[in-house]
Amino acid sequence: MSAPKPTPFKNPRAAHGFLGRTCSIVSVGAYVPARILTNAELERMVNTSDEWITSRTGIRQRRMAADDEFTSDLASKAALLALERAQVKPEQIDLIIVATITPDMPFPSTACLVQRKIGARRAAAFDIEAACSGFIYGLEIGQQFITSRTYDTVLVIGAEKLSSIIDWSDRNTCVLFGDGAGAAILQNRPDSHGLLTACMGADGSKADLLSMPAGGSRCPASAQSVANRLHFLRMDGKETFKNAVNAMYQAARESLRRCELDIKQIKCIIPHQANQRIINAVSERLGADPSQLFVNLDRYGNTSAASVAIALDEAVTQGRIVRGDLVLLVVFGAGLTWAAAVIEW
Ligand code: ACO
Question: Would you place residue 19 in the very low, low, confident or very high pLDDT band (cuts 50, 70, 90)?
């Protein structure tokens, strides 16, 4: 057997006596709804201004799903594109994982609805809920099935129709969010290390910073819960901001440490697209150069679980990432949750 090729990084999975297969993202796809909601339109809906939104967040517009377009529709469109690019047939998919906080309904899972819509009749299917961190959580869960040789093909999707849980009279939140979906096909590619590591974390003691209080077992839907506007997203923006910067920095640093990588060796950093000021603060603390960052939040706002998935799709289709590049994904969301992943593309 020939000796393995030397790499500029350590593969943490191999370092722990790893005997499984590597897991790569073999293709990506994304879908955003056609309707664009601009800051100028929001100025007519709440007491805000394009200047405030742009300078405080970096967001200029976001996409809004149509009334008859649901999270499973956005997810299915992103998935079909990823399948086409990978030349994988729906029947080849062994498992579908959908990360979302806006499922079509509490049950059945959105993953099952996607399974039906794309015709992936062999696939097992389930949803995960880790808010904005859901896509990286999904990648890490999905890779376990590939490396263990349990499954050959896993479809991971981050998809949201956040417009369905936004209080359109609350200027503190309604300017921040948008709808969309991104998908990734996971398989073994023998010539690549693929997903090198993923650091996931959570702090449930800060669950109240960002939540949708009603609609679950604690506060089922009632005339009163609707009257009290409890079926909408609520957020303590300032505290969320501080926690986001710290958690994203720590997760990114830990994942780089595991791979014995310096931030300068990363070709492309794809952060959660929530706020340009959060991205700048994390990037500065990491010692990254702005040219390493991929940012598209000006066009889509925060699409929660879809955010990094859509950005990854754009970075790949724009040629910002090519095979062999090292990529850092880093996210943060409600829960609180956070995650970072290093990938040899
Ligand atoms: N237009 C105009 N003024 C506004 C708006 C608006 N859209 N929103 C808030 N303001 C006002 C506030 O009322 C406040 O006024 P006051 O001083 O008279 O009370 C003032 O602007 C400043 O508000 P701050 O909250 O201090 O503004 P800040 O600079 O912190 O920015 C923001 C607010 C954008 C929400 C920021 O805190 C943020 O991005 N937080 C993080 C959000 C996030 O990343 N969430 C990620 C997870 S999402 C998920 O998991 C689903």
Answer: low
Q: Does residue 210 line the site of ligand 1, with CB under 6 A? A: yes
What is the C-alpha to C-alpha distance for residues 32 and 81, in angstroms, rounded to an integer?
A: 12
Give this prediction's pTM: 0.96
Instruction: List, for residues 286-314, the tens digit of each pLDDT value.
Output: 999 999 999 999 999 999 999 999 999 99
User: What pLDDT score does 14 carry?
Assistant: 79
Residue nearest atom 8 of ligand 1, based on CA coordinates: 172
Write the DSSP symbol of residue 209.
G
Question: CB–CB of 232/262 below 8 Å?
Answer: no
Is the shortest distance between the CB of 56 and ligand 1 below 6 Å?
yes
| φ, ψ (nearest 5 deg) of residue 20 | -85, -165
Is 171 close to ligand 1, i.e. is its CB under 6 Å away?
yes
d(CA 255, CA 253): 6
